[in-house]
Design brief:
381 residues, TIM Barrel, 12 strands, 14% strand
């Protein structure tokens, strides 16, 4: 398979945002959220985001109502709509192996990529919501089997995107002398659409170290993120593979730290307890089903799960300078991208672009200058 070039440590950290294509916003709370799941709101948001420093957007995948998300737009169709509404934004569609055939998805993404000038990507979700599979009459595999299927799924995608007359024989998929045209756009920096993948378990980390282009981490503090980066890099080195790292975070930037902390307290105090507990039961069962109990959300507390990807744990809460320093420290520890959620998307994305991003870029210059003189790098925490 064609591979991406190794990441440049001096490249500016990239930013992505969670697309609110699912109702309920990005926190499972009854606090006011001036965020809407509809297309018009999201079209305006996408244009606003790409003009405020965001290079990527990630559409969520929910196929049925669950845990405070009563309504949901399908991720691939919504992603294409956002691609066609923007000029530079790369849109990542979350997809489930087992509910998609990789050949059909490869064809859809190839068309979306051509139509958007090379800006389509996918996030392969191995699956945590059992009811989505069983409700559609599809088998629910054991945890590590879901990741084995995902590996075959990714290999098939890349083969179909980059070769003619593709052949693949695995335990889950068979491809015989199959070709898709048009192919996605290919460049030296991006030989095919980028493949993102998350997960916390050993199976997820090994998958990233073999085939994925990007590894997404749930929200983590500095030490937790560093541990994940080190382990996944080790697996990637064993396979002569390059992988980049994204980190989830929920960002609350205000003029003072006290204001930001007050917002966080209100979010948690007004949590939708029934929805959070339902989500907690589902995902922690999935996380603890792994052989080493290192799965996603295995150690998440109630307050963590009010933002359903542990976004509060990343600590992007405070003044613009406090947040920027944490962002650059995460970059120093290996983050190539920060995936962000917000309470009031339009207002908060614009505030980020105006107040947080300029400080991040200045601190990155300091970090590069320090590295160039070979002096010990100080903490930006």
């Amino acid at each position: 398979m064609p591979s991406f070039p190794p990441p440049d440590p001096h490249e500016p950290v990239k930013f992505a945002y969670w697309v609110p294509n699912v109702s309920g916003g990005l926190v499972t709370s009854n606090i006011e959220q001036r965020t809407d799941w509809g297309y018009e709101y999201n079209r305006e948001l996408a244009v606003l985001a790409e003009n405020n420093g965001f290079e990527y957007a990630l559409t969520q995948v929910r196929y049925t109502a669950s845990y405070g998300a009563a309504y949901q737009h399908e991720s691939t169709g919504f992603s294409l709509a956002l691609l066609l509404a923007t000029q530079r934004l790369k849109v990542i569609a979350a997809v489930h192996p087992g509910l998609w055939h990789p050949g059909v998805l490869a064809k859809f993404v190839a068309s979306a990529d051509v139509l958007s000038g090379g800006r389509a990507a996918v996030n392969v979700v191995s699956g945590w919501f059992k009811d989505e599979f069983t409700g559609l009459g599809e088998p629910w595999l054991e945890h590590d089997e879901r990741y084995r299927r995902s590996e075959e799924f990714i290999r098939v995608l890349k083969d179909l995107w980059t070769t003619d007359s593709a052949e693949f024989r695995g335990d889950f998929y068979r491809i015989h002398d199959f070709d898709i045209k048009p192919k996605p756009l290919a460049t030296p920096d991006r030989p095919h659409p980028e493949v993102f993948q998350g997960g916390n378990s050993t199976a997820a980390r090994k998958l990233a170290g073999r085939v994925s282009d990007w590894y997404f981490s749930n929200g983590k503090d500095f030490d937790g993120f560093s541990e994940q980066v080190a382990e996944v890099r080790g697996y990637a080195a064993q396979n002569d593979h390059q992988v980049r790292f994204g980190l989830n975070g929920f960002l609350i930037a205000r003029d003072t730290e006290a204001e930001a902390r007050k917002v966080l307290r209100e979010i948690v105090a007004k949590a939708d307890v029934e929805a959070v507990e339902g989500f907690r039961s589902a995902v922690q069962q999935a996380g603890k089903s792994t052989s080493d109990s290192k799965g996603m959300w295995a150690d998440s507390e109630f307050a963590d799960l009010v933002q359903y990807n542990d976004g509060f744990r990343t600590g992007l809460i405070g003044t613009p300078e406090q947040i920027a320093r944490r962002v650059v420290e995460y970059k120093r520890r290996g983050a190539n991208l920060l995936l962000l959620g917000f309470l009031h998307y339009h207002e908060d994305v614009e505030y980020f672009g105006r107040h947080v991003l300029p400080i991040v870029r200045e601190l990155e210059k300091e970090l590069d200058a320090t590295a160039a003189t070979a002096e010990p790098v100080g903490s930006f925490s």
